[in-house]
Amino acid sequence: MAKGANPILKHRFFLWLLLAAPLVAVQPQDKTFSLQDALAILPEFQWDPFLQTGTFYSSGHYASFQAGLKGERCFSLIDGYEVISAPSPYLENGALRFPESFIISLKNAIDAEIKNDLKPFKVAAIILDPGHGGKDSGATAVQTINGKKVSLKEKDITLAIALNLRDRLVKRYPGKKILMTRATDVTLALEARASFANGIKLEENEAIIFVSIHCNSEINANLKKNPARGYEIWYLPPKVRREIIEKDNFNGSEGVRSILNTLKEEEFTYESKLLAASLLARFDEFIAPASPSRGIKEEQWYVVKRTNMPSVLIELGFISNPSDAALLFEKQSLEKYTKTLFEGLVDFVTLYEKPGGFSIIE
Ligand SMILES: [Zn+2]
Fold it and tell me: How far is the CA of 131 from the centre of ligand 1 (A)?
């Protein structure tokens, strides 16, 4: 990554109407700028050499693009939702060159956004997904807690916490949709969870996040000297590509769809990471050291992979571990997990909805 900071990229589920613009050759008289020249107009820049995607930032707004060949046109995505077409930046002897009209188009589009700074972005919906349910108990364990034998089921723990968390979130955010994939002890397929989430309708300036809650378990934990314990938070590895902009619902060319899909994917990955980090910070504050951090990890969990939105999967702790199990059994500490998730989500939402556009963080 080149210099600059990462914004929380706001996504708006919005039309791609402008995509019908044909790919035509650049006017030959178009002057080109070096990156240094371009930075005099658009002050910050990030470059991903692997995907050949770049993003300019200015006054809380941003424009992303994918570099092409000299003479081609490219599409640039302004603030993650508005598409403009301009002569494409390209690499020449390893250095980026920017056609003048590309820079001007971006500058104009960003200036228009600055003028607008219309309705603030908001997280309109939070979906809580208590893992397992019904016939699927998830992980199970029998542990001795306070001298009593108790049997623990992942599906009960995740549901109890999610119900509690929902009530807290509803109270805190009466204007938001706080939804659950299941609110009772029912069997629910993973596909149903993902399609429920993907079916939520949003307005132009609204975002949605998906939080799946699970407990871990280790096979033969009781035979081990140090059975595994601790919490961890998962998100989708950036290299996994989802079909966020579906072929069936897209009117432009496949090339354009693919570029837009890449840009959208990067945005969701970034937001998922940020969501994971917000939650982890609160786990570190409230749960550690009673149960230790196993950190943020990448994995292609089904619900994370199939939900077209920022999404994370949380493993609260190991019910196969006696100390973690005790924490996940006692009413008081269960309340602590709920509080942890609540505070982490509030942190993310606050950061996301900060007035004046996105927040700059590293
Ligand atoms: Zn699970």
Answer: 5
DSSP states along 298-321: E---HHHHHSSS-EEEEEEEETTS
Task: Give the whole-angstrom CA distance, residue 74 versus residue 299.
Answer: 32
Per domain, the residue ranges of the chain are 6-116, 122-361
For residue 215, the CA-to-ligand 1 centroid distance in Å is: 6
| pTM, to two decimals | 0.70
The pLDDT-based confidence of 53 (bands split at 50, 70, 90) is very high
Alpha-carbon distance 37 to 232, whole Å?
44
Q: In angstroms, what is the span from residue 251 Cα to ligand 1's centroid? A: 38
Q: Phi/psi at 355 (nearest 5 deg)? A: -65, 155
The DSSP code sequence of 207-247 is: EEEEEEEEEE--TTGGGSSS----EEEEE--TT-----S-G
Q: What are the angstrom distances between the C-alpha of 255 and each of 18, 79, 219, 271?
A: 14, 20, 46, 25
Domain over 6-116 is classified CATH 1.25.40.70:
no
- How far does the centroid of ligand 1 lie from the alpha carbon of residue 182, in Å? 14
Tell me the CA–centroid distance for residue 315 and ligand 1, in Å: 8
CA 108 to chain centre: 28
Taking the centre of ligand 1 as the mean of its atom positions, its distance from the CA of residue 158, in whole angstroms, is 9
Q: Which residues surround ligand 1, an ion (CB under 5 A)?
A: 131, 138, 214
Per-residue pLDDT reduced to its tens digit, 139-196: 999 999 999 999 999 999 999 999 999 999 999 999 999 999 999 999 999 999 999 9
122-361 CATH fold:
Aminopeptidase (3.40.630)
